[in-house]
């Protein structure tokens, strides 16, 4: 079973709709992240959470919100989707930065906003 | 302003030859660097990393070189195989720096194509 799972894997929605993307992990990591990937723009950080009570904005948080329901669950919401939010969304987890600092990514959600 | 730059959007090499992917950074606080590989329809997967106290790290066919004075790192793949065809992301972090301690800053990626 995958350590980091994302649901749904694909979603098509219409402008103005509310949508939630969910992420679950079994790695036992405290830190979780949401990124979006656009062609030619790489991975950009939307929000991150260092533990259940800690939520932080990333580089491109406008138009998004998050909820850390438990150590293992971190969801991303688009309150009113717009077409330029069409992208690939990735959830990631990591342990505390120490000697190593890898992040482990989920398989991604392809979101299309019409 | 981009802190991590991958200036080559794509690279094509012949199977068996060396692939060299380059990455430049601007923030001197970065002390840990990573390379991720991404296949279509999958999430990025960690490939190799290097700490700023080293100038080289090797893992099988993959070697990462770090030149701190030039703020430059490179990933060498020798020999290249068709299965290496993917997008490669360079990432950097400042593990002990400020409130975003440990966050990764990614480059835009380089698409590697290895031709048989």
Topology (elements, then pairings):
The complex is a heterodimer of chains A (114) and B (116).
Chain A: E1 4-7, E2 10-13, E3 19-25, E4 31-38, E5 42-51, E6 54-57, E7 65-70, E8 73-78, E9 87-94, E10 104-105, E11 109-113
Chain B: E1 4-5, E2 10-14, E3 19-25, E4 32-38, E5 45-51, E6 56-59, E7 62-67, E8 72-77, E9 86-93, E10 105-106, E11 110-115
Parallel strand pairs in B: 2-11
Antiparallel strand pairs in B: 1-3, 3-8, 4-5, 4-9, 6-7, 7-8, 9-10, 9-11
Brief rundown of the structure:
Chain A has 114 residues and is an all-beta fold.
Give structural notes.
The complex is a heterodimer of chains A (114) and B (116). With 114 residues, chain A is an all-beta fold. Helices cover 0% and strands 56% of the residues of chain A. In chain A, strands 2, 4, 5, 6, 9, 10 and 11 form a 7-stranded mixed sheet that branches. Chain A has a 4-stranded antiparallel sheet with strand order 1-3-8-7, with no helix packed on it. In chain A, strand 4 and strand 5 form a beta hairpin. Chain A is globular and about 40 Å long. Chain B has 116 residues and is mainly β. Chain B contains no helices and 11 strands. Chain B has strands spanning 4-5, 10-14, 19-25, 32-38, 45-51, 56-59, 62-67, 72-77, 86-93, 105-106, 110-115. In chain B, strands 2, 4, 5, 9, 10 and 11 form a 6-stranded mixed sheet that branches. A 5-stranded antiparallel sheet of chain B has the order 1-3-8-7-6, with no helix packed on it. Chain B is globular and about 45 Å long. Classes of the chains: A mainly beta (114), B mainly beta (116).
């Amino acid at each position: 079973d995958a350590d980091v799972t994302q649901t749904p894997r694909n979603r098509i929605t219409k402008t103005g709709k509310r949508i939630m993307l969910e992420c679950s992990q079994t790695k036992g990591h405290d830190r979780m992240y949401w990124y979006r990937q656009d062609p030619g723009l790489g991975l950009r950080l939307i929000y991150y959470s260092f533990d259940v009570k800690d939520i932080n904005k990333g580089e491109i948080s406008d138009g998004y919100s998050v909820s850390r329901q438990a150590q293992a669950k971190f969801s991303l919401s688009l309150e009113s989707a717009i077409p330029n939010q069409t992208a690939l969304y990735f959830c990631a987890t990591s342990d505390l930065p120490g000697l190593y600092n890898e992040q482990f990514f989920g398989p991604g959600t392809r979101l299309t906003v019409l | 302003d981009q802190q991590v730059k991958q200036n080559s959007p794509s690279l094509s090499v012949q199977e068996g030859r060396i692939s060299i992917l380059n990455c430049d950074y601007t923030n001197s606080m970065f002390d840990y660097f990573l390379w991720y590989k991404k296949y279509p329809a999958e999430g990025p997967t960690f490939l190799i990393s290097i700490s700023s106290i080293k100038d080289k790290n090797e893992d099988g066919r993959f070697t990462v070189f770090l030149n701190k004075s030039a703020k430059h790192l490179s990933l060498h793949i020798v020999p290249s195989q068709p299965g290496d065809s993917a997008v490669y992301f360079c990432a950097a972090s400042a593990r002990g720096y400020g409130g975003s301690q440990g966050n990764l800053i990614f480059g835009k990626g380089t698409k590697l194509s290895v031709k048989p």
